Amino acid sequence: MSSNNTQNNTIAGALTYPTRSQDEVLPNQPRQPRNLQGLLRFAMEATKAEDAPGNSELGPIDDERRKFLEDALKSLTVNIAEVLLNAIKILTNTERIRSIQFGEPLPEDVQAAFDNVLEYIDDIDTANDFYKMGGFAMFPICYGSENEKVRALASTVLAELCQNNPFCQEKFLEYGLLNVLLTLVQSEQGEALVKCLYALSCGCREYSPACRSLVSRGGCGALGAALAQDEPSARTKAAFLIRYLASQYSDAKEQFIQHNVVRTIAEQLRGGRDATSEHLLNLLCTLLEDLDPRVLDQCRDPTLHLKETLEQHLGHPELESFTEEKEYCEEILRKVFVGHKPVEIVVEEADR
């Protein structure tokens, strides 16, 4: 197509950079900007070709270029508070949220509301502002939805708000959201369960009051049960949080021992190697750190066949590329079984 046709096809009202003639060569054309910093870099790079050789001094900007930059700056400016308030209005509309039936795709405005919130709350100050705007009011409403996608996205929002953010973690505990998640983690499935565990982890880790509350409310049993879920990502997230709690809180470790998490780990490992195996083995190493006799006895339970499982695991050819996973296996075998004589199971013939 000719250059005239190309120019005529320009969308009316679209923001475009002042053009040059086709005959003028533009070496090293800078990338189009995506943010304010990129825009300023773009402007500087784009004007280098116009500078006289050896002259790097900035000169006056002409009216055409000034207008272009002003329009570009306006197009990059977003009123974040307004965006969040609009999203909160949608996500706290009880009637709207509860009208979304089980298994239905999310309406465009609800999906956009979640997307807009997640776009900005990774910044801690914005996350705190979200709370101050009344954003936490969305959680009782969204968690009350029968639609699993709504609940999963609510957990994603909660996780992003609380991650490495003591202010929102405090509100997480204050608003009773820990109790909500501990209830949901026992009933959710699939992606909703994965995101529920994600929110639980972000709400508790590095925030002692939430961790201690989780332990005192029986959360260790719920996490131990999550290790047996079919969803690999759920098992991975449960193992990650259990390992953190067991390594940081002795009362949590005590509960995991009482719930015999070792049995669950061994049963999962016996099912074959997968993406969760490394995390399960790492967790088992954590439980064995102080060589608690009860943990050793649980590992040596002959009905678990843990020794055979670990030896088979070490025989996987691909394990050579997973150094840490291999080391976990070897460490467990060394601590639990080297020098230990296995107990023979004698099955007596029943009396005739």
What's the CATH topology label of the largest domain? Leucine-rich Repeat Variant
CATH architecture of the largest domain: Alpha Horseshoe
Structural class: mainly alpha
- Helical percent range? 55-70%
Number of helices: 21
Please give the radius of gyration in angstroms.
29 Å
CATH level 4 superfamily of the largest domain: Leucine-rich Repeat Variant
**What is the residue-mean pLDDT, rounded to a whole number?**
86
Count of discrete domains: 2
State the name of the first-level CATH class of the largest domain. Mainly Alpha
Pattern of helices and strands:
HHHHHHHHHHHHHHHHHHHHH
**Overall 3D form:** elongated
Give the strand content: under 5%
Largest sheet: none
Ends: how far apart?
Answer: 98 Å
* Total beta strands: 0
Low-confidence blocks of residues? 1-28, 345-352
Region (Disordered): 1-32
GO molecular function: adenyl-nucleotide exchange factor activity
Biased composition (Polar residues): 1-11
GO cellular component, one term: endoplasmic reticulum
